[in-house]
Amino acid sequence: MIGSYExxxxxxxxxxxxxxxxxxxxxxxxxxxxxxxxxxxxxxMQVPKNYMTDDPRSDAERVRVGLGLPEDTVGxxxxxxxxxxxxxxxxxxxxxxxxxxxxxxxxxxxxAGEELEDWEGRFRxxxxxxxxxxxxxxxxxxxxxxxxxxxGMVNLMIPLVEAKSAAMSDRGFRETGTSSDSxxxxxxxxxGRADYAGTASSVGIAGARAVRAAVGHALxxxxxxxxxxxxxxxxxxxxxxxxxxxxxGEERTGEMLSEDxxxxxxxxxxxxxxxxxxxxxxxxxxxxxxxxxxIRSVTDGEPGMGSGTMEMLTLAISDIMRRKNVD
Length: 327
Known about the structure:
This protein is of the alpha+beta class. It folds into two domains: 2-221, 4-Layer Sandwich (L-amino peptidase D-ALA esterase/amidase), CATH 3.60.70; 231-326, no CATH class. It is 45% helix and 23% strand. Strands 1, 2, 3, 4, 5, 6, 8 and 10 form an eight-stranded mixed β-sheet that branches. It has a two-stranded antiparallel sheet with strand order 7-9. The model is unreliable at 124-134 (pLDDT under 50).
């Protein structure tokens, strides 16, 4: 359904532009012509990393007019480097091909339902890792080859968003997206519109594969990798920080948990604990045995294998790192 796609220059700023072979139905959260509408073209424009305005739609409209795109064009914005991350991938299932267009960049990444914390710290780490490639948003458009009803387009949003989070998980992120993601679903205008396009449908499976590949490509291009979580918050989440505070006091505990090596150890063990506890709870004897051996070697104790087993190991590892730092 895509006629052409390219990155063009507008007043020194790159813009990824997609033109469709025919006018399409679209459901989107785009800043320009968002909501439920029809569209002949789509673009993602790059904005400065410190971009702030009360009227982003006007800026997007100026780009549309400057590039000579149709009035019904859907437009999104990103601070990620469009020259590098704008890409189109194709997913296939049961002979059905679905296209996905994406840009992606992180710094304001977050787990849905949690508050964005330590943005400045993430920003500094990202800047130190690749000073030129920094701030971000994840923008995704999925192009169905079959007509979809409004319900079908809403339905296709589900594998789109889940595939985006899967692409982040592939690179080790716990976060599910950024605080400024924007999504769009395009489908042909026609009869026989499908109402179901979820994760078990051919269009949903093919679309999810395309999105996962496109977002993954953008993240890999920007060398995006997780930033270790704050160890104080992780230990609070596990209910273990109070144990350290009681033993060492608030100031000393904060000092210990701020050490890079401790922070890294606690972050890794926390994520292992969630996965391992779940597998143990499912009766996976292989995981249970392996975990029991690790805890014995670290704590010289005989662990119970109920819920929270790995929390015990997390505390043990953090204590080892504490003693290492003290020594």
